[in-house]
Write a structure and sequence with these properties.
Blueprint (H helix, E strand, L loop, with lengths): L10 H20 L4 H16 L3 H7 L2 H10 L25 E2 L12 E10 L9 E6 L19 E5 L5 E7 L4 E2 L5 H9 L4 E2 L2 E7 L6 E6 L23 E3 L2 H6 L6 E5 L2 E3 L6
Parallel strand pairs: 1-5, 2-11, 2-12
Antiparallel strand pairs: 2-5, 3-4, 3-8, 6-7, 8-9, 10-11
Bound molecules: benzoic acid and fe (iii) ion.
């Protein structure tokens, strides 16, 4: 007897793919997609691959954020958010008092910001051994890798928290920026009228022994792109107010000569599951 059913090697794929194709076929039928249009889609995807823009396509279709949320869902921990492509491995270790940037021409366009908080486990236990890795845009020209005026690794850094889990670092208020628009994904955004802007944010990667590493982002109220981030990464719990300090004594105590901002951001990590 000949067994007509082939062995299924990936049950999950064999279950999901027919549903994905059914949804795609339904849309093709509903919109009466023509051969010319379908070939244009295939050409577009080929170019996305050649230009290495599949992750960006996943980002601007808000798929990356959805998958990230499903993967790291935990109501008690600080919400996760996507890492994005601007992370650089091995940023400089910053000693206390932590400052993650060096002065450069143009920096005076920005405002100094102190971000501070406590890293704890979801049950409130302080995590004194936690290490933070942060990266963000500066007040000019975006990330260090795009802005020729900035020293390498500016607005990036790793540092440890205090024994009680508290931390503070000096940075500058970041600015909104656009995702790369010079390739096929940029053309797609223009064609469908989707702007390429992201609201200003600071990326965090937080590690502590016995806990799952958290990758997330912090946003600020009043940003023009808060409600319509092109990658859909804004979550209400991650929007933290900026407080302006104009107190002369406090300004000089911090060695500054102009008002500055503070932002409080406590971080809760999920205990790692064993096995
Ligand atoms: C970012 O936040 O760094 C980012 C995320 C997605 C696409 C481009 C940049
Ligand atoms: Fe970013």
């Amino acid at each position: 007897m000949v067994d007509s059913a082939r062995e299924v090697r990936n049950e999950r794929l064999a279950r999901i793919l027919p549903e994905a194709l059914e949804a795609l076929h339904e849309i093709i039928e509903r919109h009466r997609i023509t051969e010319r249009e379908w070939l244009a889609v295939l050409d577009f995807l080929t170019e996305v691959g050649k230009k290495d823009e599949f992750v960006l396509l996943s980002d601007v279709t808000k798929t990356s954020v959805l998958v990230d949320s499903i993967t790291h869902e935990d109501g008690a921990a600080t919400p996760s958010d996507v890492e994005g492509p601007l992370y650089r491995e091995n940023p400089p270790w910053r000693e206390r008092p932590v400052k993650i940037y060096e002065e450069y021409e143009g920096i005076e366009e920005g405002d100094v910001l102190f971000v501070r908080g406590r890293v704890t486990s979801t049950d409130g236990t302080p995590l004194g051994g936690a290490v933070l890795d942060v990266w963000q845009t500066g007040p000019t020209g975006g990330y260090d890798v795009w802005d020729e005026r900035q020293p390498d690794y500016n607005f990036r850094g790793r540092f440890g928290v205090e024994e009680d889990g508290s931390y503070e670092f000096q940075t500058m208020v970041p600015k909104p920026y656009t995702v790369p628009t010079d390739g096929p994904v940029g053309r797609l955004l223009e064609a469908i009228g989707q702007h390429p802007w992201r609201p200003a944010h600071i990326h965090f990667k937080v590690e502590a022994e016995g806990h799952e590493t958290l990758t997330t982002q912090v946003f600020f109220p009043g940003d023009p792109y808060l409600e319509n981030d092109t990658i859909g990464a804004v979550k209400p719990e991650l929007v933290r107010p900026l407080e302006r300090c104009e107190d002369g004594e406090e300004i000089s105590r911090r060695g500054l000569d102009a008002p500055f901002y503070t932002c409080d951001f406590d971080i809760k990590l999920k205990p790692a599951t064993r096995g």
